[in-house]
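Hi D.,

Good news: the full-assembly prediction came through. Inputs first.
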Amino acid sequence: MSGSHSRNLPAFRLLSTTRKYLSNILNLSQSNESGNVNDRLQQQDPLDHQDYFQVRDLVSLETMFESQCHYGHHQDCRNEYMTPYLFGTRCNIDIIDLEKTVPLFQDALNVLAHVVYRGGIVLFVSRQKMTMHRVEHMAKHVGEFAHCRQWNSGVFTNTEQIVGFPTRLPDLCVFLHSQTSAVMPHPGLVDCAKLLIPTIGIVDSNCDPRLVSYPIPANDDSFLSIIYYLKVFENTVKLAKQKRQDDLLAEK
Amino acid sequence: MTMAGSRVHRHGTIYKRVEGLIKSEALQWKDRPLWFDIWKKFPPQVEPKEDRPVPNVHVRKILYPEDMVRAKMQEVYEVTGTVKNLRTKWKGKSKNQLFVEEYVRLQKPGLSVAEVFRQVEQEFRARGQQFIRKPKNVLHNAEETEPQNEESKKS
Amino acid sequence: MSFTTLRLYRHLNLLQFATSESTYNRRALFHQSHCCQQNKNVPAQGRDGLVGSETSTVPKAFSRTQMITRSMERFIKHLQGEELKRQRDIAEYELGKRHLANMMGLDEGQEMTQEDVKKCIEYLFPSGLFNKQARPMMEHPLVLRPRVQIAEHDEEGRPKHYLHYTMKPTFYELLHKAAVKYERLKGFDGGQEGNLSVNTTASEEIEFEMLEWIPYAEFKDLFKPEKISEADYKRFLTLFSRLREHPLGHMECDFVKTFLRVRQAADSGEKKKLLPIKDEDGRLFVIERGFKKTAKAYVSLKNNGSGQWNINGKDLTYFEDVLYRQVVMWPLQLCNVIDRYDVSVRVTGSGISGQAQAIRLGVSRCLSAFMSQELVEKMRIAGLLTRDPRRRERKKPGQEKARKPFTWLRR
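Then the structure:
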C-alpha cells in the first residue's frame, strides 16, 4: 500500500468521536444562544470536514456481517487483485475481510455524498436480474439515475448520436454489481474510466477492482447484502440532498 | 467490443489524466470536473490504475479446532437438519452446531472420542433429540480412531 | 493528448444543448461554463440586483451548489430570443395573409387556409422555375423552423427521466413497472389467494382468453423516438406473459390489457375456424373428431381445466402402454397447456395404436380453436393436424397377403 494514501483505522475513530463531540456542542448551543456555532460550522468548506454529511455512521460491521456481505466466491474464481481484501478461505469459499471493507465503504459514501451535494449526477448501475427493479426504484425515489439494462457501448461515448442532442453525462457511477455475468466485467467500468467519470463499485472476490476508483470489497450476489447496500446508498444520497437544501435555505 | 477503441483507461488514473491536462493548460482550472476537488481531498486508498503489480498475499485457510470433531461426527451420524438459508437472517444454531458445542464441553483429556460421542448422544436423548448412527458397514471403524491421528485410519 | 482532450470535452460538456450555433460558438459556450468555480460567489437569484454588494459574506459551502451556469443562462436567453423572433414572424405572416386577401379581393372576415395562400402566391407571383422549392412561397414560421425540443432536461442539465441513460427510458420504465407488479404478485402466498381473488365475470374471462399480444410492428411505434429491437419486444413478451399467466394475474388485468387485442380470425379463404362454445359452467369447449385407420374418436376439450382425461369412462390408464399415453398428450405438451384443459373422448374401432392416434388428431383439432396462429402453425408442421390417409391394403389373389407371395417351392 502506498504511504501517502494509507489511512489507519484509529485516526478514523478519533475523527468520528470529534464529530460526535461537535454535534453535541451544536445541539447544546442551539438551545442556549441561537446559531453561533452553527454559523461557524457552515462557513467551513464542506471538503475540510472529514465527515460533513455524517455518512460514516451508516456503515456498521455487524450489520454487514448479518447481511452476508463477507461471503466471496469459490477460491478458483478468485481475482488475484482481490487477495489483499480477503480474510481467508473456508471450505474453499473466500471470505472477505469486513474490517478492511468498512473504511473503504465509508470513504466511498463520503465521496458519493459530496458529489450529490454539489449537484452532480449519480448513475446506479447493476446487471443483476433479481434486484434490478429495486435499484431502479431506489434511483427514482432519491431523484438520481439508474441503468440496469444491457449496456450499449455508445451510452457514454456516442451519446450525441444516439439521443440526438448533447447530454450531460453522470459525474459518478455506482456499480452495485461490477460484472455482467460470472466472468465478464461490466463494460461500463471501462467507459467510465475513458470518459473521466469516477466509479464506486461493490467488488466481489471474483471481480477486477483495478478500474473501480472507490472499490468496496463485499458480496455482490446475496439478496440481503444488495438490499443493505441499496438502503445505505439511498440514505447517503438523501442526507446529502437534505444538507444541500438546508445550506441553500440558509443562504437565502 | 473495444476492437478499434481507445485505450486511455490503461494509463494512470482519471485524476492523473485530468491533472496532466490542467498542467499542460489543455484544460483551464475553472473547467475542471466536479469531482476533482473531492478526489484531491479524499483520494482512494489504492490508486485505481490498471497497470499495477499483482499483490503477493497469501490467503490463509480458516480452520477451527472443532472442525475435526465435526468431520468425525459426519462420519458417524447421518446428516440431518437444514442447511443455512442465505435469504433469511436466521440467527439460531443448527443441530450439528449444538452437538459440537456439547462435545467441546464434555471433552476431557482421558476420554476417547467414542466415549464422548456416547455421552453427548445421551445428553441429547435426555432432551428428546436424536442422532441417527450410520449403519456399521459404512463406518470403517471410525469410532475407534482418535480425531488427532487421521493417517492411522488408512493403514 | 488531442484525443484525450476531445474525450474530456465530451464529458465535461455539461450544458451544451442542440442549438443551431456553429461549433465555434459551442466551444466558446463550453469555455464559459462549468462547475461554476469562477463565479462561485455570485448567487443565481437576483444576480443583477446584487452586483455591487459582492458576496464575500456568502459561505463557500453553498455558493457552488446553487449556480445556474453562464452557458445555461446564455442558452435560455438564446431560446427567449428565438421565441421573440418567432412571434414577430408569426405576426408578420398573419399580416401578409391579410394583404394577400386584400389584393385578391377576398372577404375580410373569411379565414384563409394554407391552401388559399398557396393559390394566391401562385397567381400573384407566377414562376417558371423548374425546381418547385425555388418558387416563391409563404409558409407558417412554425413549419419552417420548429421549436427545439428540450423538455428532457432541467435547468442544470440534469435529464428529467431517471432511466435517461438507458437510451430507451419509456420502454424500460414499462418493463420496470411490470417487474414491480410481478414481484408484488409473487409476494402474496397461497393462503391469501382465496381472499384476494376477484370474481371476474365469464364474459370477461372469455375476452381475456381470446386476446393476443399486439404485434412487433405496432408495439415498436408506441415508443416512437426510441428504437425498439425485436429482442426488446421478446423481452417484453416474456415478462408480460409471465404477468398474465400468474395465478393472480387478473389483479393486473387492466395493466396487461393495454397491450392485448382481439385475436384476428384466420384467413377467410381457408376452412372456417372452429370457435369455442360456452357450456353451463361458463367454460369454453370444442368438439371435434379424429380418425386413423378405422378408429374414430369424438373429442371434446374444455378450457380452465386441470389436465383431467376421460377416455371411454377411464382416465389415461385406458392405455396400458406409456407410449400411447405420450402419443395422446403430445399436442397439449407441444402447446405447453397439459394442465389447463380437460379432455373427454369416446373412441371406437381399430387397435390401441390406431385409437391413440385418432385421439391425437381430435385433440389437436380442438386445440387449434384455442391456440394462437403461431402455435397452430407449429402443430401443422409437426403433422398433428394431418389425417393419416393410409388404410389397410387389400389381399391380392395368388398371394398370401397384400404383397407377400406364397412360399416358392421347387418341385
